[in-house]
Amino acid sequence: MFSRKGTQLLPRNLSTLYINFHSLQLTCRYQTTQTNLRRAIGRGNIHHVQTAYESAIKQNSKIDRNMIRKLLLLTRHGKRYQDVEFIKTVIQDMKGSLKITPYHFEYHALIFAYGLQHLPEKAYNVLDQMRNDGVEPNLYTYNTLLGCYKRTNNLRQAELILKEMNRNKITPDTVTYNTVLHLLLRTGEFDRLFELYRTMTDDTEMAKPDIYTYSTVLDAAVKSQNQTIGNEICDHVLSLNKRDKIDLNILNNILRFKSDIDLNQVLELYYDLPDKFPHIQPDRVTFNILLDACLKGGNAAKAYMLFRDMKKADIKPDIITYGTLIDAESRIGNLKDAIQLFQDMCYESIEPNDRIMTSLVNIASSKSATAQDLDTLVSLVEKFQPTLQLDTKAYNSLMHGLALHGRSKQVQHLYDTVFRDITCQPDIATFTNLILSYINDDYLDDAMEIYYTLREHHKKCRDEKLSQVRIPIQLDTTFYSTLIASLSQNITPNQMTTDDEYESSPRLVTAVTMFNDMRPLRIQPTAHTYTAMLHACGQYRDRYLLDLVHQQIKVDMYLDPDIGIYNALMDAYNRTGDGDTVLDIWQTISMPASFSDIKPDQTSVSIVFDSCGHNGLVTRAQSIWIWLKRTKFKLNTNNYNSYIECLCRARDRAGWDHAYQLTKQEMSVPQKPLHGKPVMDQKTVNTLISFAKKKKFDSSEIESLEQWKSSIFALK
Question: Could you point out which of 101, 144, 417, 644 has its C-alpha 20 to 30 Å from the C-alpha of 439?
Fold first, then answer.
């Protein structure tokens, strides 16, 4: 009548009700744990999956093989080592409380997880565990294991796995060979990769290539610049019966390969995509390849058209996209547009990296960089200085750009904040730019103070072991040539030539001081150094110092003067009004080949005619012209312009008439250029008209010349 439950007596019908309720509670509890596990798997949260699984095991919930496979598919991609341990626990639970025999799938998940952790040795040990549990490794086991060795670039061990497969009579399939091919690609074994590919295509008993094979081999062809293999694969894959098998990955590799060969082919393939490959939508990688191809091919306009296509397709540019475009602007020295691209990138919330900032800063040394753009660049550098690291070369470029504009305060500030505390190691270019900034800012005393300090440091570095010097700096010819050249720029030349050493310009004296320091410091002046000095002397019309430099050129046993030095000499003497010396030098360089290896060039011809014209030596100029014609010297438009101006400078009208006839007979007009006849330009005609006015020709004759000019250049 009554049933005992603990100390409580219940009616028999109530006891039955209690038991049924208890069973229902257990069933609900099992269903709840299963539901939680199923939901965690659906959400893809590995941590929640593991928690739900542990809860299910504690409550002895029923977990079938299908659910185990789903949770292993998820957890095998875990990035923590605990995820590997979890998979091992699941396999143990299967053999234990779950009473489910593990098959290949579960062991493969464990091997795969070890591979993600870069533990191929432990992955290999799973094979012994499989055999102990009565599961023989199969083709998929070894393919998964090869993937583990691929992740660690262990080619040697992968080859041993292939041999083991052969011993166990397991025939490799396409996946096997694709893994090996990709491993050969990652390790740079291109010849072996191509050899294996050839074997796959030629050996009838081997697994045949698939689209992934072609993509891998094509990638190798790009990196090794093997056009034979690359063209073969491109032609094969692009054939009509293969188009539907092409995916985005191999398309990108085809574009990458063709970008090194022919830009037109790349663009043609891109524009054919909608018709020939409608199933493929270009991605960010596609556009990055196209942009890089256009910019390498020198077609910046097309690159920016593709950039607009990219934005129109709602594909957001990434750091590679902007980096490519900034690199393109860097090549042409366009700082303004490069800064705009950089700012656009930041507006898109793309964080710049060291490489992009370095590429941007390197443009600062471009001569086209404006002072305003440099100020913007300096502010960007200061903004990102805490997070980005620039190297010495980049800071030197920025200092050089500022130095060209005479921004000595900004250059000094950069030096103090970057180099003084050895944030970056300064080099000779650093100090060159520091001194250059003071020279261009016309603070010669400050420039020389730094120079003298550096000169003494150079001696210390020369006489002591470099390892004992905190900042090893040694002066060189580039240092001197750069500073000497700068001292002949941004000046107001003297109106009168000076022969007095005490009347020399302070800037020129500074240049000579540096030049004279070179030999005692055992630094041999180069042709460029001498050319810079000659240019400075010519700019200042300082015949006294010019003669000194000329004498040094004559006695320098280590210098083999080239035509550049002779041209610089003639130009300098021309500027000082010494036409006779110009003719002496001309005589030297125009001697027969048996006497001299130096031959005049077109620059030499223009200089000697300019000198003859300005120094009243028109007769000598005519003799030189006859000699040039007799020797069939190739005269250009500038040579004709110089000779025409020289003739026009003759006192009487005969010289002008000769120049006019020469223009009409021996030069061609721009609309009809003729072979062997230089094309006259605006300067040619303007010279004739200008001297006609100076010689007070009749107004009707001058008007006729103006009409002639209009007809030649189609002026409206």
Answer: 417
Class of residue 365 by CB neighbours under 10 A (exposed 0-12, middle 13-18, buried 19+): buried
Cα-Cα-Cα-Cα torsion 476, 478, 483, 485, nearest 10 degrees, comes to 140
Banded pLDDT at 28 (limits 50, 70, 90): very low
Nearest Cα residue to 165 out of 211, 127, 112: 127
Output phi, psi for 3, to 5 deg. Answer: -120, 140
Contact call for residues 324 and 345 (beta carbons, < 8 A) = no
Q: Whole-structure pTM over 0.90, yes or no? A: no
Q: Is the pLDDT of residue 702 over 60?
A: yes
The structure tokens 């753009």 sit at 373
Residue 401 burial (C-beta neighbours within 10 Å; 0-12, 13-18, 19+)? buried
Distance CA 146, CA 611 (A): 79
| Residue type for position 600 | P
**Mean of pLDDT over the chain:** 90
**Contact in structure between 418 and 395 (CB atoms under 8 Å):** yes
User: Is the CB of residue 606 less than 8 Å from the CB of residue 576?
Assistant: no
**Residue closest to 426 by CA, chosen among 503, 354, 479:** 479
Separation between Cα atoms, residue 344 and residue 330, nearest integer Å: 16
Alpha helices in 138-205 (DSSP H): 139-151, 155-167, 174-186, 190-202
Q: What is the pLDDT of residues 500-523, one digit of tens each?
A: 656 778 899 999 999 999 999 999
Read off the tokens for 254: 């085809």
Q: Check residue 593 and give its pLDDT.
A: 62
172-219 pLDDT, tens digit per residue, is 999 999 999 999 999 999 999 999 999 999 988 899 999 999 999 999
Please report the sign of the dihedral spanned by the C-alpha atoms of residue 536, residue 540, residue 544, residue 550. Answer: positive
Answer yes or no: are the C-beta atoms of 609 and 601 closer than 8 Å.
Answer: no
- CA trace torsion 458, 464, 466, 469 (10° rounding): -80
**Per-residue CA distances from 247 to 173, 201, 242, 386 (Å):** 21, 21, 11, 43
What is the distance, to the nearest Å, from the Cα of residue 583 to the centroid of all Cα atoms in its chain? 48
Q: Cβ(565)–Cβ(529) under 8 Å? A: no
Residue 385 φ/ψ, nearest 5 degrees:
-60, -35
Q: What's the pLDDT band for 14 if we cut at 50, 70, 90?
A: very low
Q: What sign does the dihedral 27-29-35-40 (CA atoms) show?
A: negative
∠ CA 195-176-139, rounded to 5°: 145
d(CA 630, CA 155): 72
Q: Which structure tokens are listed for 187? A: 């390790």
Window from 52-61, 152-161, 336-345, 549-558 with minimum mean pLDDT? 52-61
Q: Count H helices, E strands: the chain?
A: 37, 2
The closest alpha carbon to 115, from 156, 67, 150, 161, belongs to 150
Grouping H, G, I as helix, E, B as strand and the rest as coil, residue 507 is helix
Residue partners of 469: CB distance under 8 A and separation at least 6: 460, 461
Instruction: Look up residue 529 and give its two tokens.
Output: 């150094």
Show the tokens assigned to 151. Answer: 């992740």
Residue 11 β-bridge partners? 2
Question: What amino acid occupies position 282?
Answer: P
3-class DSSP state of 4: strand
| CA–CA separation, 325 and 417 (whole Å) | 30
Per-residue pLDDT of 596-638, as tens digits, reads 678 999 999 999 999 999 999 999 999 999 999 999 999 999 9
In terms of Cβ atoms closer than 10 Å to its own Cβ (0-12, 13-18, 19+), residue 346 is: middle
